[in-house]
Amino acid sequence: MSAHDQMRAMLDQLMGTGRNGETSRYQVQFNDPKVCKSFLLYCCPHDILASTRMDIGECPKIHDNALRADFEKAQQKFDHYYDVDATEHLQAFISDCDRRTEAARKRLLETQEELTAEVAEKANAVHELAEKIGQTLAKAEELGAQGLVDDSLKLMGEIEDLRKKKSEAEDTYRNSMPVSSYQQQKLRVCDVCSAYLGIHDNDRRLADHFGGKLHLGFIKIREKLSELEKNYEERHEARRKFDEQERYKRDDKKSHRSRSGDRNERHRRSRSRSRHSRHRSRSRSRSRTHKHDRRDRDRRRY
């Protein structure tokens, strides 16, 4: 994106579609059904997961920063209940992701060597510690990038303790099964983003995963959905009542226009009949006058 395009996008986001007296380049308003309501609320998965392994392409609905600015201004005056639409959108998306995660787990059960319940529990202990190390390392690196060195060093100290626990858990797991089986890569599926994680993945690989755009994007989506779901039922019911009131108003206006139209039509017909009656009256009057004039001429003739 050029500097000119970036500047235009910033102005659109700040001032909306009317910044130069112009309308949206899509020739729609923010309340048009073709506009993505999740985008207006900063939670469209198509944007959040762009350029990741699970990039789902461009959203089929319109994304426009100027329309978002228009919506934010209008929302201050009037509640549009777009959080209900966004909740339903994210619920459908996360449900689909969870189905894929469950399908991936089933495929692992079919393809990987089956473990006894005791060994599986020990393997899960290694997985959980490894994931905790990866998450903590990603967080420490983030704090370091923000200049919070002391907080970052504190987390690095926690990581050392976790590494010791992981080493002990790996020894316990290794001693519970044959060496040939231990060398096989035991995988598990990330509950957040459905990516595969291996039991032998190193700390760097795990940190890259937990600090990566894909995993953090799914965290953002899931957190936003949890936030929206808190008041979903209440908001959904409020919008239903609002829609009913708006429908009654439209029906009442339509009925009023219909009654007004009927009155106008009756008035038009009445005026038409009146004009027709006056026309007939004038015609009869002219006819009588003509007859009288003709009789007068006949009398004078004789």
Automatic annotation (TrEMBL):
<dbReference type="GO" id="GO:0005685">
    <property type="term" value="C:U1 snRNP"/>
</dbReference>
<feature type="coiled-coil region">
    <location>
        <begin position="105"/>
        <end position="172"/>
    </location>
</feature>
<dbReference type="InterPro" id="IPR004882">
    <property type="entry name" value="Luc7-rel"/>
</dbReference>
<keyword id="KW-0175">Coiled coil</keyword>
<dbReference type="GO" id="GO:0006376">
    <property type="term" value="P:mRNA splice site recognition"/>
</dbReference>
<comment type="similarity">
    <text>Belongs to the Luc7 family.</text>
</comment>
<feature type="region of interest" description="Disordered">
    <location>
        <begin position="236"/>
        <end position="302"/>
    </location>
</feature>
<protein>
    <recommendedName>
        <fullName>RNA-binding protein Luc7-like 2</fullName>
    </recommendedName>
</protein>
<feature type="compositionally biased region" description="Basic and acidic residues">
    <location>
        <begin position="236"/>
        <end position="265"/>
    </location>
</feature>
<dbReference type="Pfam" id="PF03194">
    <property type="entry name" value="LUC7"/>
</dbReference>
<feature type="compositionally biased region" description="Basic residues">
    <location>
        <begin position="266"/>
        <end position="302"/>
    </location>
</feature>
<dbReference type="GO" id="GO:0003729">
    <property type="term" value="F:mRNA binding"/>
</dbReference>
